[in-house]
Amino acid sequence: MRVSKLTKSKFRLACECPTKLYYVDKPQYANQLVEDSFLKALAEGGYQVEALARCYFSEGIFVTTEKNQSNLEATKRLLGNEAITLFEAEIQYQGYLVRTDILIKYQNHLKLIEIKAKSISNEDLKKIVKRDGTINAEWKPYIADVAFQKWVLQHAYPNCSISSYLMLVDKDSICPTNGLNRKFLLTKNQSSKPSVKILDPLTPDDLSVRLLREINVDHLTDKIWAECDATGRSFTDRFHELSQQYFSGLKPPPIPKKECATCQFKTLTHNESNMLSGFKECWTEALGYNDNDFLDLTILDLWNFRDKPKCLQRGLIKLRDFNEDDLSIKDDGQPGLSMSQRQWLQIEKVKNNDNTVWIDEQNLCAEMQSWIYPLHFIDFETAMLPIPFKKGAHPYQGIAFQFSHHMMDEQGRVSHVGEYLNTVPGIDPSLDFIRALKSELEKDSGTIFRYSSHENTYLNMILKQLFELPESPSNLDDLATFIKSITRSPSDSKEKWIGDRCMVDLCELVKRYYYDPLTKGSNSIKKVLPAVLNQSKYLQQKYSQPIYSGKNFTNQQWLIYENGIIKDPYLLLEPINKEVPDEEIELLFDDEYLKEGGAATIAYAKLQFTHMSDFEREELKKALLKYCELDTLAMVMIVEAWQDIIKQGLP
């Protein structure tokens, strides 16, 4: 049997969970990230960052195969030169194989550079190592990645000295030219491998300010090999053990942990029957679970609970096995549920097999009485691109490219009154976006709703950007006053404010005043909407008719039954990205916004950085408009359901 090589991507997997190494080479196990890594890198700008990094090394050459020569042999031959810079050099030592992003040889010294689309600032640098001297968990995967490559290099070239670097996106840098990010077009070759085509050669001005920063990590790679886990075993010992298990085809004993919640070796609904689930196999072996056990909600489902590792170590896993003293339940003195009270409510509902809705009618009613009509519901779609659109901008500067706006008047009439979408390649839409939003919302003083802190965060980013523009817009003061009137200041802002018309966070109201067991603890609007539809007779009666019309729908019926169950309205729409279901996108990202809005961010990146026909472009824009409209309609439906519940409860 041919033994697979232990590569850096597999090593990264093993650092997450050693048991994943057993599943990764076996096609019979579902792996949700196999096809989707391209989309993840597209959304995060990884390919463009790699291409830009290579532009800083004009003397660099790609290692390419000639005749019957392998990449390994080509690398070995090229490293025979006294001085050379190589891109994608392949190095092997025994069963270990790495492909380095950039490898620079000068005499007997090798300089290894690993490129990451991760941001770095002077402030971030201080946080890589914690006060106790250990490496911050956020940075460990990056340092471990370089440490592995350096280890392979050291063993393959024992007579060379080696230095190692991370090349990261410098948040403190300022883009020197306009249109830099439009020079990188993402394509796929005949074997569907992604590559970046540079449309126009980068000018000396483009390269005059480096947007990427090299950080020497030799001291950190040394540190990580010596670091010990909770059992006292060093990283070196664990590395040798997992290597031995991998090369022997042995399965490391599974250890359930909180990261199992996002395991990519789970089967999703559409492939349950023909693929094996590594996640289920692990928990069956570790906990003795059978198929029925997997129907029970576990600690992985408990909302925002920080003591999951402790509970898993204790073997306290199913929610129905919890008691009140297993949680530290505290009242935080605010109306509605505190975080710990909501967690206990979730557990209590499971223990009692109670699927009824909990609602704090008194506090919700008081909240509603403070609302001013007409009510406004807004949702943004946004992106953060590592290579900026324009001169003077910082990398990863937030871009708001889309909004949807619903209104509800005092009689309960609902209308989709406005939307904005700008996906023109190379254009930063934020200034147009904020002008359009202002014109939508300034006509009255009605209460404005958002869902989560995302809209507040991006409006504050845009406010900061307005004052950094090389040429101030003529209505700068008006725009700034408008933004401050509907937002609250960021927590790290020296200037503090809460706008007279500060947006109301509907998600916070859900957390405080409303819990539906059908959401299984999630407060995502994509989970709350189907649950509310299932429970509200008012919504069922209203939306079972083909009566809804907005800017992207005509006579739409939102309530559809499938096998006796109300179908999730989001599933009535075609996926934004047809090659990947939305449920898989949640597994791609760690960032909470990208879990929720990643489909739109991927679509925006496609429209910016890939070649598309006019037809494909229009289809993607239509899908974006429909999804965003449904997001604000979902907010409307939640409020409609609450109004009906309060109305029913009034004497």
TL;DR?
This protein has 651 residues and is of the alpha/beta class. The protein is 38% helix and 16% strand.
How would the blueprint of this fold be written?
Elements: E1 6-7, H1 8-16, H2 20-24, H3 37-44, H4 46-55, E2 61-62, H5 71-78, E3 83-93, E4 96-106, E5 109-120, H6 122-125, H7 140-156, E6 161-170, E7 184-188, E8 194-198, E9 212-216, H8 218-226, H9 235-248, H10 278-287, H11 308-314, H12 339-351, E10 358-359, H13 361-369, E11 375-385, E12 397-408, E13 414-421, H14 430-441, E14 448-450, H15 454-466, H16 476-486, E15 504-505, H17 506-513, E16 514-515, H18 525-535, H19 537-543, E17 561-562, E18 565-566, H20 582-588, H21 592-609, H22 614-649
Helix pairs in contact: 1-7, 3-21, 7-8, 13-22, 15-16, 18-22, 20-21
